[in-house]
């Protein structure tokens, strides 16, 4: 099969289009004929080696974390899916590889594709949808009437998280440029701060939850918009000791992550708020709940551009540029 692979960790290197063996099918796996694949900033970070200490892959390996396609074969113990089912997924860490024609995925990571979405639209959902779900519902416990600040509202996670928070009945603030203000308001944002002109830390206060997706400076400023008892949840780092324990990292890595996050954890404690790092996990059951929200009309995909499979490197470069509104998708089939 054709696939785009990482030959070595490299900040400036590109993916190589290669012939790779068709994936082996385990007893609990479904073999998916890939129709479309979402592109994420995580793909770039994996490619450059930024996540190598906690997500080690041995080159050459196939990149890609989002998939929509059709089941063509199932393992002997699979009960939820059958050949012909249209599905989507974010394959678990260690088993990524959606920039390809086929992929084998554990059935626990898979959900039926929303009936009202195209393959390209469906492929835009899993990683950002699960990130928003696990941040706002699982970690934050966001409730009706609470206030949440979702950074970078026009990005992949932001466009989904705003809609999910609105569905939950929260009041939502976000940051966006003037060109994206109408988009994020249409998705459900109540307060839009123009990050080019205004300082969100001065414009916002008394928030229950912050979803941080930006740099260390923005993370620290986010502490000031929370009320006592509020929660600062970062999906961009730094990883904290709890994450290190959950991942079963070795003692050296645990110590490094403790040191990296010590400053922000201490500042959060002094302000009476809680900091935590969230790294999204594959979860087919949660994705099934997201499917129901999409089919009900509560959430819609926001797709910026669809690239042909041959232009996968161009798609990744576009994501790295930071210009995309919503998600970027590769049409494989």
Overview of the structural elements:
The protein is an alpha/beta fold. The chain has two domains: 2-125 and 301-331, Medium-chain alcohol dehydrogenases, catalytic domain (Quinone Oxidoreductase, Chain A, domain 1); 127-277, NAD(P)-binding Rossmann-like Domain (Rossmann fold, 3-Layer(aba) Sandwich), CATH 3.40.50. 32% of the residues lie in helices and 26% in strands. The protein contains eleven helices and 16 strands. The protein has helices at residues 41-48, 119-123, 126-139, 156-167, 181-187, 200-203, 216-222, 241-247, 251-270, 284-296, 312-321; strands at 2-6, 16-19, 29-39, 61-62, 67-74, 86-89, 102-106, 110-112, 147-150, 171-176, 191-194, 207-212, 226-234, 274-277, 303-308, 327-331. Strands 3, 5, 6, 7, 8, 15 and 16 form a seven-stranded mixed sheet that branches. Helix 11 (312-321) links the parallel strand 15 (303-308) and strand 16 (327-331). Helix 3 crosses helix 4 (156-167). It is globular and about 55 Å long. 48% of the residues are buried.
Going by CATH, the homologous superfamily of the largest domain would be: Medium-chain alcohol dehydrogenases, catalytic domain
Give Rg in angstroms: 19 Å
Write down the CATH topology of the largest domain.
Quinone Oxidoreductase, Chain A, domain 1
| Fraction of residues in H or I helices | 25-40%
The count of helical stretches stands at 11
Morphology call? globular
Return the domain count. Answer: 2
Percent of residues in beta strands?
25-35%
CATH C-level class of the largest domain is Alpha Beta
Global structural class: alpha/beta
Let me know the average pLDDT: 97
- For the report, how would you describe the main beta sheet? 7 strands, mixed
CATH architecture of the largest domain: Alpha-Beta Complex
The overall strand count is 16
**Poorly predicted ranges:** none
The SSE string, one letter per element, is EEEHEEEEEHHEHEHEHEHEHHEHEHE
């Amino acid at each position: 099969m054709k696939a785009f692979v990482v030959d070595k960790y490299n900040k400036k290197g590109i993916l190589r289009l290669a012939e790779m063996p068709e994936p082996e099918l385990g007893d609990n796996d479904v073999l998916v004929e890939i129709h479309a694949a979402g592109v994420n900033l995580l793909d770039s970070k994996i490619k450059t080696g930024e996540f190598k200490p906690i997500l080690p892959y041995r080159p050459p390996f196939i990149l890609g974390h989002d998939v929509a396609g059709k089941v063509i074969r199932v393992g002997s113990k699979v009960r939820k899916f059958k050949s012909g089912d249209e599905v989507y997924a974010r394959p678990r860490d260690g088993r990524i590889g959606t920039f390809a024609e086929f992929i084998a995925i554990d059935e626990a990571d898979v959900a039926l594709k929303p009936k009202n979405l195209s393959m390209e639209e469906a492929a835009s959902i899993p990683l950002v949808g699960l990130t928003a779900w696990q941040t706002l519902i699982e970690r934050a416990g966001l409730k009706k009437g609470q206030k949440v600040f979702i950074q970078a509202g026009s990005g992949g996670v932001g466009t989904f998280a705003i809609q999910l928070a609105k569905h939950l009945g929260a009041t939502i603030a976000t940051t966006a440029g003037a060109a994206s203000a109408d988009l994020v308001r249409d998705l459900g944002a109540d307060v839009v701060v123009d990050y080019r002109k205004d300082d969100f830390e001065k414009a916002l206060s008394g928030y229950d939850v912050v979803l941080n997706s930006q740099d260390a400076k923005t993370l620290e400023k986010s502490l000031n918009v929370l009320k006592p008892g509020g929660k600062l949840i970062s999906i961009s780092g730094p990883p904290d000791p709890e994450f290190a324990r959950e991942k079963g990292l070795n003692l050296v890595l645990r110590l490094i992550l403790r040191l990296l996050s010590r400053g922000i954890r201490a500042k959060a404690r002094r302000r009476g708020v809680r900091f935590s790092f969230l790294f999204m996990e594959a979860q087919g059951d949660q994705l099934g709940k997201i499917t129901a929200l999409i089919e009900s009309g509560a959430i819609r995909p926001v797709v910026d551009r669809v690239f042909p499979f041959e232009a996968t490197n161009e798609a990744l470069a576009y994501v790295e540029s930071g210009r995309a509104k919503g998600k970027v998708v590769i049409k494989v089939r």
